[in-house]
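Risk register update: the risk that structure generation would not scale has been downgraded. Supporting records follow, first protein first.
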Amino acid sequence: MEKGGNSAYTSGGKEYNYPMRILIISDIHANLTALETVLHEAGKYDAAWCLGDIVGYGPDPNECIELVCKLPKLMCVIGNHDAAALMQIDADTFNPEARNAIIWTRKTLTDSSKAFLSSLPEKIPANQVTLTHGSPRHPVWEYLLDTRTATLNFEYFDTPLCFVGHTHLPVIYSYLGNNHLAQLSIPEPNRTLVLPGRAIVNPGSVGQPRDRDPRAAYAIYDEEANTWDYHRVPYDIPSVQERMTKAGLPERHIQRLSAGW
């Protein structure tokens, strides 16, 4: 550990240094208002890790990409909606409403936005943490929604921790390495937890929460202390819904923001 709390991680065969207070965000889904609110409320942080799906569903894909690109010491992985926007995934594999949003996003993305999304890897192994969108086993597509699926995924990463998104649900799966299933826990907002020695952790969604809480979700990770500071913050949902309506995006996606489902 270097002075000032910096530690080293390796990625792509190169060694980097990053400070210990790290903003963890996921599933922004082109919701600029939620993203701006999270960045304001997060206060000071030294680095940002994004777990994918910057675009999809929402009305502000280019603006969200531009803002994410400016975050300090950014590490970011690709999500399934990001990949679909690049035509790496067939839009017909999504439900009708999501497919319509993907087609709209494809038409809306600028060349620079496409270039950024194209540069994103599916998985990033850092020093203590593996970053991916869906799961370490299937980085882009697999949902970790139950303890059995989570347990099977512990074989697919070598770091103590793995941070994932995709489900839009804040959760911690901890595993003791025995034959039992991983344990599931749901963190309480605005409370700092010491993370288990071996865990898969999801910060929830910035732009489209699905746990019946419409507030934007994010976390602050401190590697030196091994802590997870999980937060929820309200944002101006009607303004986002208004932009979605003007863009002609699906009504179902507009309404779900208010209820958090």
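Supporting record for the second protein:
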Amino acid sequence: MRPTLLALSSLIAVGAEAQIVINEMDYDQVSTDNAEYIEIKNIGLDPWPMNDVSVIMFNGSSGAAEEYRTISSPEWPELQAGEYFVICGNASLTQNCDHDASPNTNLVQNGPLDAVALVRTSNGDVIDVVSYGGSLPDHVEGTGTSAQDTNLNDGVSIGRSPDGNDTDDNDADFFLMCSTPGAQNLIDPIECDLSTGVAAPVNVGGIFLLYPQSSGRVVVFAREAAPTEMRLEVFTANGALIQDESRGTTAQAQWNIDGEALRGSLLVVRYTTSEGAVTRRIVVP
């Protein structure tokens, strides 16, 4: 194993002083993964020498970390404080791309149990690491993020919220959000094309109603003209999936959302049939 990987044992000490972080990743698109990118942000006060940075990617599908790609360049410029550096697979499909890497498709593994690390090229010190799709042993800060990119909609990524926030815990720092390469991270499940919402809901017909109860519970009722597959997904405003229930093939269904612990919070409710999907938002009373 290369010397750079040995430095992962000192991750906690190095990560606590990290000046640059992996800020956002879009690793899964609808159909072909041809618009993937990794965004790095300088969260410090001074310029950072990117020509001494290697981006190392690990596949953990076997349960152990296997390095499958390293991206670096001695030509990379200094990254100024507060600015972003975007590595993409296809610059023609990714805004603000600073380095067009190879290959154009499938640049970043989709998970589960994968990781990406920023490593000092000169001495092998680990600057930052993100484990996604689970916690890849020795390649994670805290716990791997439970936020998952999706191939249901384009324009979805996982990223730090607030922008650049680094608590040394991947699961606490990363959320599902809008794809914003080279710009401030944005969580907006209504306006963005997130898997937690759709910009133009498909008209599935029938009836889809939400009834908030004083107890904090929300009753959801759906009825269609003919039997169809019915599924209900409930997300918090930051994109966390908190309920996913299918009712099989039926013409009528009811779900109960237990929102007692979420009173005053915005929930995004997505109802899906074989004909399409419709999304509604509701504030738990």
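Helices lie at 3-6, 11-15, 170-173. On this basis the risk owner (M.S.) recommends closing the item.
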